[in-house]
């Protein structure tokens, strides 16, 4: 959404080059810090916000919150959760989760707090990590 807004506002500018790619939070921070990217968009949970702010401050970067957004679970058409409007922690018990490879800001670090305040112990959860957006 924000990227398309930025493009629409600036599409008349001749000096704008827009490159888009998806990566994990650490790589966004690394690219902006190394000036390979001028800006980066990230989702940071409430639980990770303190560590995130400390990290970007140590890199001399700034963080500007654009909006608060809930965490979403994306499921495929063949998933038993596909038509559900919401999912509780019991429904997540046997789900297979796939996400970008993250270290510090990984969902894996939040298995006890998946919906920020909902407790889930993740006993039977299977998690796969990828560095590709083609899953």
Automatic annotation (TrEMBL):
<protein>
    <submittedName>
        <fullName>Uncharacterized protein</fullName>
    </submittedName>
</protein>
């Amino acid at each position: 959404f924000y990227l398309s807004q930025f493009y629409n506002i600036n599409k008349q500018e001749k000096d704008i080059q827009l490159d888009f790619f998806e990566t994990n939070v650490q790589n966004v921070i690394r690219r902006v810090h190394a000036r390979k990217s001028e800006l980066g968009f990230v989702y940071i949970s409430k639980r990770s916000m303190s560590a995130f702010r400390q990290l970007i401050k140590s890199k001399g970067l700034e963080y500007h919150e654009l909006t608060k957004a809930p965490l979403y679970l994306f499921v495929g058409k063949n998933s038993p959760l596909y038509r559900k409007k919401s999912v509780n922690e019991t429904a997540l018990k046997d789900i297979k989760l796939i996400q970008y490879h993250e270290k510090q800001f990984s969902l894996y670090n939040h298995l006890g707090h998946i919906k920020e305040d909902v407790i889930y112990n993740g006993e039977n959860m299977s998690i796969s990590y990828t560095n590709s957006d083609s899953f």
